[in-house]
């Protein structure tokens, strides 16, 4: 058509296509009157700009056939407020709001491209649209809530309105096309609705009432339907962000902002204003809310204290631009819209307390005031305003194309030319020149604000981690952060970013005092940098998060981490290697102190070292304070266990030495706990005849892993108590009791000390079921009774268990006597055939009940050819052959027993070596799995050679 000649030739194909699409959609009866007006060159050019510049505009003109004709016929089509009384359903309300939104946005695009409305006029219309839609939806839903639940009232019976605060551009009446709206919901006072006064209505607490009202309001605006959406709603500026309540009463708001409000929240609150309210007294409630918030936003003096926070905010802006290369982003890039906003709002925060005239929300109104007050150079306001308006108009042009929230200039040359044409420029070069000039001026003015700090031109790794932590919740930066995390080794990056955003927005973080938050903000970039150096950064980050949460309110630990980089590096390595370590640290943050001395942390200790260190530790505790003594024992055990685990995962301590270290630790704690128990019981009942603290005539005998020096992380203690005092005699105290009762109470007190769950948890879980007659037998047995039971009543499996027994605490004299008895019992000659049958029967019984192996997995402990098979062969060998070679009774651990069998000529060296290698391999994997908090089960194709060797040896020894 001839009217298209008013459009540059390069755009005519696109214009023709979109014009034809519109014609096909609306029909000839609609097209004709519009086409007849296009002989007018001005109208033809306006239509060409709108059709070339906005696919969204063409789509709306096609959806609403009378729209284009109306725009041509009128200078302002107006904004008709919906009559919500006509809407019977929520769907009707939502459709009406979306139709209104689409029509108004289309008109704004038309008037802007036509040059009929300037940016302030366009923004005012879009803001008015938002206010009308919010108010209409709020009123409609409130009416429905009143029908169901009555009116919300205070405790004094006053109806409670709900006030909607508009933040950001909505609050400043600067809303742009395709903009989010940032809202905060509030109501004056707690109470409940009066629904219970009416039949069929259910009363609700005000908090629940307004929560539902807010949720329904958001849905009516935000949900995408066949007609699109009204506005995307962002509620993250409310107290505590996403983790906070959706709506707050005034007292809660006031308390939050007075005690926890941060500088960026003051910065945001500059633009806040009520944009909708519903309920009796809404206007007064809105005014009351703003009066309440004003002291938080504006101090009563010239607020120089905010300068450092603003300087940090400004530095962050500059770093983000450098890091992300936002050259083509007219909002976030250098010389962009955000920098103009910062210039104005920085002065408002600093001086708004003493200069009330500066408390205006609209940026174009505040800039002249800043120049008049001497805060900006003379003549700069007009240039800043013009530059800002240009950027906002280009922003509208970008968002008009597809109704998308973007501020990035298109990279494609044809799209750039289309944008320039729609905005009335002869070419992209002409528009680009104007943008470069405007952005250059804004950049220079921005750099002059609040004494910019000296900074290097290059962005450092540290800068990037700081920006990631500070901006991890910014949706528009998500792709950038994911890319950075991925490149730094965080796999999957999405999981790492989720962990960071959850922590950043967590209520416990937003509730931190200023000092605590500053320390956390120092810690997180350091932590992220350290995590990127370990083998699995995302895993390390996930495992350290519970510890971070545990120490947030004890920020001295954050200082410890910040000021000791080796501690942080070691912390990440250990958490990455073992969830058990991470869990222990999270449960007991005091263990971080253990990491201060890196040499001590990774330096293995001897049995004497551990015992001496524990004695010294206990000497520092009030001997009359049992609770403190029990806590000291637990702290020592946790610290020493952490050191052992650290030495294990770093390779400083091999498997056998790990078990030795944990066994020595248990022995030292048992001895100290027994001493405490002795002091308590003797203080109350006196001492048995012939007994003393040096020789209590009482001994703790270890079975199982403790007896075999094979203790692991988290192992129980299998122990039995023996004494050799005369049972019928009594103690010498004022509240004398017989000796058997005394030693029973001593054992009970010891178990109490070990198993009681204090704030730091138990010391050890104790199992005493291996004593004579098991749970039905006496807790404490005399040595004589123990011998009688073993000779006359014990089962073969009880003699097997005796192979791994040894005294570990108490009377050394009695311990020696027990060892002699053990050697006699184990050295007795036995019927090997009967012994073999008993051992095999017990092994089969255990496997039937305990083995978790199947076609796909192998149970390291109970599976065929596994740990227990080796243990049973060792126990059989000792019971069968010790009468011929007493030397094999010297040790209680399986490996050294196997070595002694070779030395005694009872087992071929190669056979023992194969069993030792398999046993070490199984236990090493078991320890690794324990530190990973995984069950002792591996894939069925693992350890095939070891299992075959063990099973072959089993057949040779036990048939």
TrEMBL record:
The record's section on InterPro entries has: GlnE, GlnE_rpt_dom, NT_sf, PII_UdlTrfase/GS_AdlTrfase
MF terms in GO: [glutamate-ammonia-ligase] adenylyltransferase activity; [glutamine synthetase]-adenylyl-L-tyrosine phosphorylase activity; ligase activity
Which positions fall inside the PII-uridylyltransferase/Glutamine-synthetase adenylyltransferase domain? 311-449, 842-933
Q: Does the keyword Magnesium apply?
A: yes
Stretches assigned to coiled coil: 818-845
Q: Which cofactor does it need?
A: Mg(2+)
Renumbered to this chain, region (Adenylyl removase) spans: 1-454
Q: Which residues form the Glutamate-ammonia ligase adenylyltransferase repeated domain?
A: 84-280, 569-819
Q: Which UniProt keywords apply?
A: ATP-binding, Coiled coil, Ligase, Magnesium, Multifunctional enzyme, Nucleotide-binding, Nucleotidyltransferase, Transferase
Q: What is its EC number?
A: 2.7.7.89, 2.7.7.42
Query: What is this protein's function per UniProt?
Result: Involved in the regulation of glutamine synthetase GlnA, a key enzyme in the process to assimilate ammonia. When cellular nitrogen levels are high, the C-terminal adenylyl transferase (AT) inactivates GlnA by covalent transfer of an adenylyl group from ATP to specific tyrosine residue of GlnA, thus reducing its activity. Conversely, when nitrogen levels are low, the N-terminal adenylyl removase (AR) activates GlnA by removing the adenylyl group by phosphorolysis, increasing its activity.
- Give the family this protein belongs to, as stated in its UniProt record: Belongs to the GlnE family.
Q: What name goes with this protein?
A: Bifunctional glutamine synthetase adenylyltransferase/adenylyl-removing enzyme
- Specify the species: Microbulbifer celer
